[in-house]
Prior knowledge:
It is built from nine helices and no strands.
Amino acid sequence: MRSPQSLARLGGVLYLIIIAVGIFGQAFMRGQLVVRGDAAATAQNIIESELLWRAGIATELAMLACAMTLAMIFYVLFKPVSRRLALLAVLFNLASIVLEIANKLHLFRALAFLGDAPHLKALEPAQLQSLVYLEILSEQTGFAVSLLFFGFVCLLLGHLIRHSGFMPKIIGTLMLVAGACYLTNSFAYFIAPAFEATLLPWILIPVFIGELSLCLWLLVKGVDGPKWQALHSG
């Protein structure tokens, strides 16, 4: 078994990869190729940048593999604080990850509608473009559902960090705020989409601060080994 310090550092590396890939997916794949409200332009962008679209899907699937490993690291690190809450965080995390994995099928289907398979010739180009855009909208909805579960992960991690004694309480507080922001944004997306649109991107700022703070602390400082060992032994 790795020491808690080495696990924390590995967790920091994985978290940094997850954040970087997440930014890449939003800014360079969806941000560059998806034109809000314009199915024709979106479909044309995907056709012209098919490699970028496929690379985005592949990197996000690799990111989710990192996220599964990180979920287990968090369980090992925080089970001395509360085994039940650490396990609950893993369950919420896995629910979020499985939803995201299934969600990537929408992006593959969007690409399939732009192929040259014989059965697609029965549909008009405008119809195919609309189907592509609907798949992208479905992926966005599924992503909001997955973030709802991840919001609970952040709340649980924030609580565990604040009560751990081997990590700063301020990091836990920032993660609590991040979790509350995730939940607010997801529920707004489902209940009041127009209001949710006004929240973005501002509501993501405390999310970014909270997650990046945890990531960098794990990467640079890790955990207080003696305090962790004391909890683990007790």
